[in-house]
Design goal:
Blueprint: H1 5-8, H2 23-28, E1 33-37, E2 46-51, E3 54-60, E4 66-70, E5 84-86, E6 89-91, E7 98-99, E8 105-107, E9 124-125, E10 127-130, E11 133-136, E12 157-165, H3 169-177, H4 182-185, H5 191-194, E13 203-208, E14 212-218, E15 225-230, E16 234-239, E17 252-262, E18 265-274, H6 278-297, H7 301-309, H8 324-334, H9 352-369
Length: 395
């Protein structure tokens, strides 16, 4: 591929909007999306959630089942998350109108009769749990097969991470494609050196697959790394222990999914498999709990990133933060602006993975806009690798 081609074709489709009716919004709604951390939603709790520009209500019934329903009561349109969970139903705070998990109104206490009202309902959405997260499907028709990706095969501990990023989700998605940035953004001791690589950026190879794309990166001084990009917004990758605190079990087999809340913010959901058992697993959990306590006491990464970009702090001031890598990524991605203007960038050969991914999204979104079918994406569970021989030609 001529490396000047990305510069000559520097007019990209607008990947930013993901709200209802937008091309990206319609595309993302064809897939299951994580919306909340399972262990953060106890039985009897209801919370408001914002996903892809829309507000919803998430609650967990007395059976333990999670439900996602509409944001407002059909009666006087007040916010339902302020109400009470009654069994597996949700009762409105304002006048007691009650809805079951399917959104059907089953009680109107002050009306006559006070019981079910078949004519009244609110939206409801298929909801499931998988690997520590609650998922929902917001598209039309029957949802795709669940789960969106398989469980980890080996014995070990499964952990979850959840971060709030202050920029458009597609900027973070492109950052995932861009392993070259690791050699610079995270050079203070991150993944690049953990792979045994020197400072030189990796050579990158990428190709389309049944599930999305697979990327191979390597340098002469370090290992080849294989990463899977599961369409439309999940990456499966090996990641090193965070800040050296979780050395047990080695590198973590990880699923990382990005979900837009609105056009200028998104959520990062990470599920990691730590290959430990027995006494080693117990020791790991103690170290993890200590780390999480320190993380909870530390400043929120998005706030730290904003302070650095505003010149109130520098990255050198926060080197001891327990989540330095996230702060570094926020500085790089929010540093592009809340919404990146791709019309002003100047691309090079190191951006080939990003160019290829953009073209793939353009193809799918254009098909959707023109009423043609998109590709039938399917992930059978290919595991990432830290080493291997790459014999494919570069994109």
């Amino acid at each position: 591929m001529d490396t000047s081609e990305p510069r000559a074709k520097n007019k990209w489709m607008d990947f930013t909007p993901a709200g209802p009716g937008t091309p990206m919004g319609r595309f993302l709604r064809q897939f299951w999306q994580p919306v909340f951390v399972s262990n953060k939603l106890p039985v009897g709790r209801s919370v408001p959630i914002l996903i892809m520009g829309e507000h919803f209500t998430l609650y967990r019934g007395s059976s333990g089942t999670p439900y996602v329903v509409g944001f407002r009561c059909a009666h006087r349109n007040t916010q339902l998350s302020t109400g009470w969970v009654r069994g597996d139903a949700l009762q409105c705070l304002y006048h007691g109108w009650t809805y079951d998990g399917s959104g059907q109104c089953i009680a109107r206490p002050a009306e006559s009769p006070p019981g079910p009202c078949p004519e009244v309902s609110i939206p409801s959405y298929p909801t499931r749990e998988h690997l520590g997260f609650i998922y929902a499907y917001f598209g039309g028709g029957e949802p795709p097969a669940f789960p969106p990706f398989p469980v980890f095969e080996d014995e070990g501990v499964v952990d979850n991470r959840f971060y709030d990023y202050p920029c458009n989700w597609f900027q973070s998605w492109e950052n995932h494609l861009d392993e070259v940035h690791v050699a610079f953004t995270h050079q203070r001791g991150g993944t690049h050196r953990a792979l045994g690589r020197e400072i030189e950026p990796p050579q990158t190879f990428i190709e389309e697959t049944d599930y999305g794309m697979v990327r191979h990166t390597s340098t002469e001084s370090g290992a080849t790394r294989i990463t899977h990009f599961i369409f439309p917004n999940t990456m499966r990758v090996f990641l090193p222990p965070t800040n050296g605190l979780f050395g047990a079990g080695g590198w973590r087999d990880s699923y990382v999914t990005l979900v837009p809340t609105d056009d200028e913010n998104h959520l990062l959901f990470m599920t990691q498999h730590i290959r430990v058992s027995g006494a080693e697993a117990d020791a790991y959990k103690k170290a993890r709990d200590k780390y999480l306590a320190g993380l909870a006491a530390a400043p929120i990464p998005r706030d730290v990133g904003r302070a650095i970009l505003a010149g109130k702090l520098s990255l050198e001031d926060v080197q001891d933060h327990p989540n330095l890598a996230t702060i570094e990524d926020i500085c790089a991605q929010l540093g592009q602006g809340p919404i990146h203007n791709r019309g002003k960038e100047y691309l090079g050969r190191s951006d080939l993975c990003i160019v290829r991914m953009r073209r793939l999204f353009e193809r799918e979104l254009r098909a959707l806009a023109e009423g043609r079918p998109t590709k039938a994406w399917h992930f059978s569970g290919e595991a990432p690798q830290l080493t291997g021989t790459v014999e494919r030609a570069p994109v």
